[in-house]
Amino acid sequence: MMQDFATVWSERGLLFAGLGNTVLLSLLAALAGLALGALLSTLLMSPKKALAAPAKVFVDAARCTPFLLFAYIVYYGLPSLGLQFDAWSAGLLALTVYHAAYMAEILRAAWAAQPRAPIEAGLAFGYSGFGLFRRVVLPPLALSSAPVLGNQVIQIIKDSAFLTIITLPELTNAVNSIQSRHFIPFAAFVTAVLLYWALCLVVEAGVSAVGRLAEARR
User: Fold this and answer.
1) What CATH architecture is 2-217?
2) What are the CA-CA distances from residue 67 to residues 70, 79, 133, 182 (Å)?
């Protein structure tokens, strides 16, 4: 058994390249998804139905679609419409758009739970629209929703494993390549589990740091 793990370690170049792609892909998708989700949350909270209704339809559609199917649509379906992406771009696009819907709903719920007094004060000082959102709504919103957003980042990391189906060379793809060459599925996949776990622990530590910051600001 230890020999199998030694064999996995001998392929560490491939393993760490896959891990690096997973980290970069997840980080970019989380940042872009949060930005898009913040924009969508402003539409969801808009009193204008012409803005809120399309955003709600998109969010509901994305949340009710399995991510694997969504990735298939982006990589294999969109080319029939003339939109061609390589595996990396398709994977990043799929993760970003899909999880932006969840982040939008997280931010919308946290926004709805915010006290009205700071918002009314911001309006009194002349803020409105995006300026009001960026300066008055977003800072406390980010702090209060950080634990749930952290869970969503962990979900992004886990969903990135599905992108092996579009041949994106992320961590799962790397360990699958290792086990298929050396026939050591247990050692290869357990190594992947431990690495995914380590990534999630990093996210949890970041969320805890944000939580301490939020407590210090109260």
Assistant:
1) Orthogonal Bundle (1.10)
2) 5, 18, 30, 30
Q: What is the pLDDT of residue 35?
A: 92
Nearest residue to 163 via CA among 56, 5, 28: 28
Question: What integer pLDDT is reported at residue 217 of this predicted model?
Answer: 59
pLDDT (0 to 100) of residue 111 = 80
Sign, CA dihedral 105-155-30-217, equals positive
- In this prediction, residue 143 carries a pLDDT of 76
**Do the beta carbons of residue 206 and residue 54 sit within 8 Å?**
no
Q: What is the pLDDT of residue 13?
A: 95
For 122-154, give the DSSP string: HHHTT--HHHHIIIIIHHHHHHHHHHHHHHHHH
pTM: 0.90
Please report how the helices 12-44 and 87-112 are oriented relative to each other, as an axis angle in degrees rounded to 10: 40
Identify whether the C-beta of residue 104 lies closer than 8 Å to the C-beta of residue 55. yes
Q: Which long-range contacts (CB under 8 A, 24 or more apart) does 137-142 make?
A: 137/111, 138/38, 140/114, 141/107, 141/110, 141/111, 141/114
For residue 123, what pLDDT is reported?
72
DSSP H helices in the chain: 2-10, 12-44, 49-63, 67-72, 87-112, 116-124, 129-132, 138-159, 171-182, 185-217
* Structure confidence at residue 113 (pLDDT): 80
* Positions in the chain short of pLDDT 50: none
Structure token digits, residue 84: 């061609």
